[in-house]
Specification:
This protein is of the alpha/beta class. It contains 13 helices and 15 strands. The protein folds into 2 domains: 157 residues, Alpha-Beta Complex (Aspartate Aminotransferase, domain 1), CATH 3.90.1150.10; 233 residues, Type I PLP-dependent aspartate aminotransferase-like (Major domain) (Aspartate Aminotransferase, domain 2).
Amino acid sequence: MADTPGLLDAIRSRFAHVDACPFTGPRIFFENAGGALTLNSVVDTSARFAAIPDNQGRDNPASRALMDVIAKARADTATLFNAPEGQIFVGESGTELLFRLAAAACLGTPQGVVLSSTVEHPASRSAAARWAGEAGKRHVLIPHDDATGRVTAQDYAAHVTPDTRVATILHTSPVTGMGNDVAAIAAAIRAVAPACFILVDGIQHACHGRIDVASYDIDGYVISPYKVFSRHGYGVAWVSDRLTALPHDTLVGGPTTGWELGTRDTGSYATMSDVVAYFDWLGGQVSDAADPRARIEAAGAAIHAQEADLAQAMIHGTGNLPGLAEMPGVTIIGGAENPAREGLVSFWVDGRPAPEIVAGLNDHGIRVHTRKADHYSGNILTPLGQEHCVRVSFCHYNSRAEVAAFLSAMQRLIAA
């Protein structure tokens, strides 16, 4: 993106609060894993639909217009996911949806094993543990590799058994920043347990683009839109037809294929169309593709390249500024050279508590986050012997100039 004059500025102009916090003023936003920046179009759409009093499913023009908005958003999201089959629906949050999908898969299958990995965020790991217990199934946790911060298809292959009924996969870790090969892991599972229901937590991966459900051979994929340029208050799930065929929460007398409970916010659906339109627009800036899905794929490739460049600068330096890998006492989780990294660098500094570094960076106008060895991140940090770490998470709208400001601030903090 840096090679296309004016493109980064055009990208940044589409996001709210891109370089200033509404509470504290100018700042650099490197806390995207906690929630990405919001598209200006999403802000406008949210306000517009919040004002509409009409409901879905009524015999009037306004209600029919709302239903058209929902249908379009489902189709748009299916294009973003590359999911020509199955169905798209929204829920309370990504975590809530993972629990609902896990409940259906665990309760609707025979006795056996529920397979997860220790790298997973508690959204999927806790859902699997909870519903494996309720279903009387054994919950098996596959150890991840502490050195690389990820889990592989070979790791799953070593633990999957013919009686594996449900498996969960984390697409990208919000602590290590490493992506896992969903398609390869799913293939390893199906080679031994072809009927297994496979559920994927795509919450951290989504903002980096390149979702391709059709290539994964899975049964559920969940995202949290506030982490992919939309807003809080809802989650989005894709489910396969075979998962929908299992018993799941529905209203008595209602359609058995439905997943939504109660009336959902039409505005949440509409903002997903805004997100897809943004990926489509970006793909048109970096390619000559005519097909919407092809433009989305081009956008994902450009996002990956931009974030890889930012990670390279952050780890190895830019201009005359040394990178994190060259700073004394700094240890980078997952290693400095890790091709699985997606828009995130977590590290610690020997002898310096992470909250102290985070506060110091905040004083320099740089927003990052402390990850603690708690129920969210203890699975990653405790095996490494760390109570906490600093997480720096960036997105394609961030710049090398922002990385340089971060490295300059880090130099001063370490020197102090």
